[in-house]
Amino acid sequence: MTVVTVVLGTQNPDKLKELQSLLKGTSIQVLSLKDFPGAPEVEETGKTFEANARKKARAYSRHTGCLTLADDSGLMVAILNDKPGVYSARFAGPGCSYADNNAKLLRLLKNTSEAKRKAKFVSVVAIYSAGRFVGVVKGECHGKIAHESRGKNGFGYDPVFIPKGFKKTFAELPRGVKNKISHRGKALRAAKMKVLQALL
Ligand code: ITT
User: Fold this and answer.
1) Which CATH number is 172's domain given?
2) What pTM value is reported for the model?
3) How many whole angstroms from its chain centre is CA 46?
4) Mean per-residue pLDDT for 3-11?
């Protein structure tokens, strides 16, 4: 069986763990930017998830010389006009923590009723091979914002996001459940198909 090598182009250790667990048990050999020291800093100046994902994947794939995949993702809250969106990582300001972001979000939605707490996670995964575009795919997960932070699993906004059809937050659900229904899980499954098609 041919083993395909893919580099996961992310500087976020939590995302890396999730991406690695999503690709476990496949014939894809997974490397990360740690295997390619000196990766360039990529400024996320794009206005869309796709623009940022492509910018990261292109730059990292030039650096690694390999098939490289990058995810740009975030949370879109309907009543906040889809914010924080592409600013999800730095919603509460430069250098903020996940807890700061969640506190800001819960504060903004303090007096918002159940029906108006709709939100979705979006993940756009771009794939490049040594600077050459291979494909781009998207995954979404709909749900709502909880009234308080709950649970210890996952990362980022997981403690305040309740996926549709569940009562628990992503941070209260087992990792396997999140992977099955999440934006990143869906995008990664589609990305795997693109990678395999590119090799045909
Ligand atoms: P890289 O660009 O290096 O991959 P990053 O953390 O800067 O790392 P993004 O720009 O895509 O990545 O920002 C994504 C942010 O959106 C992330 O820091 C979380 O705050 C949030 N986020 C994305 N996916 C999430 C998930 O599955 N669960 C919770 N929060 C998530």
Assistant:
1) 3.90.950.10
2) 0.96
3) 16
4) 91
